[in-house]
Amino acid sequence: MNPRQTREFVKLIREQFRLQADVRLLAAILQTCAALNQPPLDWQGKLRLGRLTPEYRSISQQYEPQLAELERSLDATELDRLLDSIPPTEFLN
How large is the average pLDDT for residues 57-82? Predict the structure, then answer.
């Protein structure tokens, strides 16, 4: 894999984990609304606020050190090692 492909793949992995955090946050918003028997008013605002929480960052940035190292090295072996370290259940279907 050439350096450009590696960088693009790293961006894709980052986006994957950001989306994973969004899905979990949106599910929590909907569950809260359902429990309170209220419609999900201003869910976009709640999503924006939720993205600022440590819990959201822990999901969306859980592999950030490895991704930053991979970007610095642009090494396909490092990419393989990173992918092997991520459990399949960590990826959205």
Answer: 81
Task: Establish if 92 belongs to a structural domain.
Answer: no
77, burial (CB in 10 Å: exposed 0-12, middle 13-18, buried 19+): exposed
In a domain, 91, yes or no: no
pLDDT, tens digit (0-9, with 9 covering 90-100), for 4-31:
787 888 888 889 999 999 999 999 999 9
C-alpha triplet 32, 35, 38: angle, nearest 5°: 80
Q: Count structural domains, the chain.
A: 1
Distance (Å, rounded) from C-alpha 32 to C-alpha 71? 38
Distance CA 66, CA 11 (A): 13
Q: What's the gap between Cα 9 and its chain centre?
A: 14
Does residue 72 sit within a domain? yes
* Mean pLDDT across the chain: 86
The CA-to-CA distance between both ends of the chain, in Å, stands at 25
